Amino acid sequence: MQQVTQKRELPERMSWARAMIFAIGFFLLSAILVGQIPGYVYNAMTASSLVEFERGAFSLGLICLACFAVIMVIEFLFDPKPVVPPAMLAGVGSIIAVVGLAVTAVVSLTGYQSFPSEKTNLLSVLGGKFLWFQANAIDLVAVGLVILFVGLATVFYSVLAMGEQRNPDRRDLGTTPVIRVGLIISSLLLIVFVYSYNYNPFPASIQPLVLNVILGVAVFLALGAFALRLHYLMRPVRKNVMSGLYAVGALGLAQTGALFIVLWLVAYPLLALLHPLPVLGPYLTNCTRATAIPTSCSFSQDAGYLIDAIISSSFFGALLAAIWAWKSNRNLVVVGSVVITAVIALTALVLHTSATALPTAMMLCAAILVLATVWSMTARREFAVVGEGNLGCLGQWLIMGTCLFVYLSAFAFFSMANFAAEETPPNIPNPINTAGSTDSFVMFALFAVLGAIQFFFLARNRYRV
Q1: Contact at 8 Å (CB) between 250 and 68?
Q2: 62 exposed, middle or buried (CB, 10 Å; 0-12, 13-18, 19+)?
Q3: Which residue ranges make up each domain of the chain?
Q4: Which sign, positive or negative, has the C-alpha torsion 132, 137, 141, 146?
Q5: For residues 31 and 346, which has the higher predicted lDDT (pLDDT)?
Q6: Model confidence over 105-114: pLDDT tens digits?
């Protein structure tokens, strides 16, 4: 009896190097969404004062709504049937950028970086300085940075849209020289900052200014490289991803931003409402003085656990949905993932605008933007398989060793962030500006170099999954 064997359709195959970059990106995204953000909300809710929770909720809501606004600009400009002329949006974006720059400069130079101040007494309700808001509940630096970001993004994409009107090319140009130069310079500036931050090579009088300028340029270049790479990534499949991009903005970012703004508005009155309730009051609130309600109150640990569980499970469900949709809606998952990664990078910046926290916040922002850009480059199959090679013992070690070194170097890199008492203390000691050893920097430099060497040989050998 003759047996007829049907040739099955093989799934899409990729190199191990490309698969590893995808895995590293998803690991970072999962760790921040499921671990860091819920943990930050819990710490802010259960602190002795609600000021940090109000500032954080306001800044988170603001950056989510700002990114939704940028997505709507992209929809208006690059929809198959554009709605708004690019020149008009470029003019509007220029005005917004000037306003954002002015707000940031004025509040930074005058020192009036928060509202309301301790001396404000305007329409006081429930002991608040302005309505029911406590002192420093609104971060004006974050407001200026968000407005500046929306304006610059609007101008940037409007110029790209005007270019497309003159040249109807819709190809994905990959990693162009502009993107490469932006990534390389941004990465080199990050290296300069990390070294300077730990070993103080500049005079003490000018070092803070020099480091802030270095990081500002690094963030600007990394953000520009990411925005341009995202544009090229979506261009060939624009008809397929525009609806998904709108869903990420409207159903994800806009809803999340609105939720955090509502939390910012009602958090303080909610304490006054919940505290007198017979069962829920003692369970959800914690007040230190019975004569100062709600000024001496914060949310209890049980309330923090509840909100923590809701946020963690929501993000975990979204990550599972992305895994489920990978095969049928790959473009949506890739574009949505890199967009959310960029939003997280900007969130790290706007949540930490104090003088002590801003340098390392810009460091994290630039580093995550570089990762998001590399991730979007990988989505275009930069690591095309030329020849198939057996993985073997050497290949397995290269994969395991690279993952291990990347994890350890990233662990050390994030330990260098200096967010004072607001966050969990660093996992690896990093006593900067002292005579002590900078453990995080040494560990980061060592394992980053070892991981890069192993990844080079992994990519060179063209091992295929």
Answers
A1: yes
A2: buried
A3: 16-384, 385-465
A4: negative
A5: 346
A6: 888 888 788 8
Going by pLDDT thresholds of 50, 70 and 90, the confidence category of residue 2 is very low
As given in the structure block, the two tokens for residue 111 are 């020192």
Cis check: omega of the bond before 201, within 30 degrees of 0: no
| Contact assessment for residue 141 and residue 113, using Cβ atoms and an 8 Å cutoff | yes
- What pLDDT shows up at residue 427? 65
Separation of alpha carbons 4 and 226, rounded Å: 51
> Phi and psi for 11 in degrees, rounded to 5?
-70, 165
Please tell me the chain's helix, strand, coil percentages from 3-state DSSP, rounded to the nearest 5: 70, 5, 25
Helices (H), 275-391: 280-284, 301-325, 330-350, 358-378
Measured on CA atoms in the order 435, 439, 440, 445, is the torsion positive or negative? Answer: positive
Mean pLDDT of 297-323: 85
What percentage of residues in the chain have a pLDDT greater than 70? 87
Local structure of residue 235 (DSSP, 8 states): G
